[in-house]
Design goal:
An 8-stranded antiparallel beta barrel has the order 1-2-3-4-5-6-7-8. With 198 residues, the protein is mainly beta. Helix content is 11%, strand content 62%. A hairpin with a 7-residue loop joins strand 5 and strand 6 (122-139). Mean pLDDT is 86; it is low at 1-17. The chain has 2 helices and 8 strands, in the order H-E-E-E-E-E-E-H-E-E. The chain has a single domain, classed as Beta Barrel (Porin).
Length: 198
Amino acid sequence: MRSTVILGVLLLAAGSAHADGWYYAESFGATKVHDELATHLSDPTMFRYQFAVGHRFGPWAVEGSVVGNLSTDGYLDPISSPDLGGLELDVKYLQPVARHLEVYIRGGAGYGWADGNLRDYSGRNLGFGAGIQLKGKGSVAGLLFWPLFFLIDKGPQMTGAIFIDDGFDFYRLHDGDKTAIDAQLTHFNVGLAVGTDF
């Protein structure tokens, strides 16, 4: 009987420790391009942005995102300097390491396309990465002015997080003639996320 009670308490505690809910995230950083795509760039370092919507189920999350890797010399010559955009779907596994701190690993797949002098090229991509996030609950008023997230403790609450993500993506892009260009991208992003709970 005692072991059944202990097991029940452990299961209840494990269930209440997990968060579930929708969230929105955006992050910005740098991408280093390797492989054949780098030969089409005068500078293999690109500016990276990512906007994502996801849902967390306990320690797992599913996340769809729009990604852009913008050539740093594209403002000088936008026709010949290719940018790389894409749509991605990732699965994350998150593990708490402290009360407000979590680490995660992720993997996913997507579809990408280039523009500039490679505007006819598009294709699939695979990626994986890892990250760390610092999160907590605060006021929804933080959507109006971010310090209010921490200063107001009454009224509707939301979860907010600051995260760092390090990742790798592999793209295989084809043009209409099925000529292929491979691209390996390593990237580092810093971002913010808000949601119901995640």
